[in-house]
Amino acid sequence: MSNRLGFLLRLGVSASILTLILSRIPTDGLLERVTGAAPVFLAAALVLALLIGVLVAMRWRLLANWLGLAVPVGLAVRAVFLGFFSSQALPSTVGADLVRGYMVARHTAAIRRVAASVIADRLAGLFALCLLLALFNPVLSQLPAPYAGVVVPVALLASGAALLAFLLACTSTAIRLEARPIAGSVGLGLAIHALAVVSASLVARAYGVEPSLAVWVSIIPLSVLASAVPVSISGWGVREGAIVLLAGPLGVPPAEALLVSLTIGVLNVAASLPGALVLLRWHRAEHTTI
């Protein structure tokens, strides 16, 4: 009962935000823009979305192996895509983490290490996101004093301290802190977020919207951070609100920003479909065993 109520509440949040946005933004002509989109750019954006899923699996597996979990590449990839697919009806990234952790936990008795690997993966991704914002986001440097000199260092220090503290808490006589898996996970995190920015730029180019990477690197990382808050269904509504809000001051009209955001959401759904195949094979294997 509580799970159903939680789902309905998150669905209500997504629906309410989307309804509010659509009531405030003129959408005349958007359907024509959709039908006139350049499919090559949309296909390229979808390929990048699929590649992001594979890189997330590689980042997670790197940290899991450091924690002493022998997670095969195929299992990590399947678990991540199953998590992506399940998150279409679950609270944002939290639901995806629970699903992928559960799938790997079925293959090992080290449930605590599985949970630790998922948390470490998320913290590495968060630190990489803050690092990307610090290195390439032109908007943050334009904030009024004293925020321009405070926001980035605080975000980096807070996310970095959280990651380091958690990794230190995971160490033991058998697990020592190592630079290679940590640096590798952060590097993969930077690549993941950079690909998300490029994917958004390709979607924008498909509609003839501002394709500049400088614009989308100012928008996408912050929208990813906002949509990760588990108050909606797979970030729907929260993502659109964040992108529309951030895109306006950068010269992207609200209707066009909304079009790009909705397309990103649809592409994310499409990129999660390999998870449906994983789920189908999983059910078939269980019925065969029975």
Question: What does it look like?
Answer:
It is a single chain. The protein has 290 residues and is mainly α. The protein has one domain (2-22, 38-289). The chain has helices at 2-24, 30-35, 39-66, 73-86, 92-105, 111-136, 151-170, 179-206, 213-217, 220-227, 238-247, 254-271, 274-289. Helix 4 runs antiparallel to helix 5 (92-105), helix 10 runs antiparallel to helix 11 and helix 11 (238-247) packs antiparallel against helix 12. The longest helix has 28 residues, at 39-66. It is globular, with a radius of gyration of 20 Å.
- Give, in order, the helices and strands: HHHHHHHHHHHHH
Number of discrete helical segments: 13
Shape: globular
Largest sheet: none
Share of helical residues: over 70%
Identify the notable features of this structure and list them briefly.
mainly alpha
Structure in a nutshell:
The protein is mainly α and 290 residues long. Helices cover 74% and strands 0% of the residues.
Question: Could you outline the blueprint of secondary structure elements for this entry?
Answer:
Layout: H1 2-24, H2 30-35, H3 39-66, H4 73-86, H5 92-105, H6 111-136, H7 151-170, H8 179-206, H9 213-217, H10 220-227, H11 238-247, H12 254-271, H13 274-289
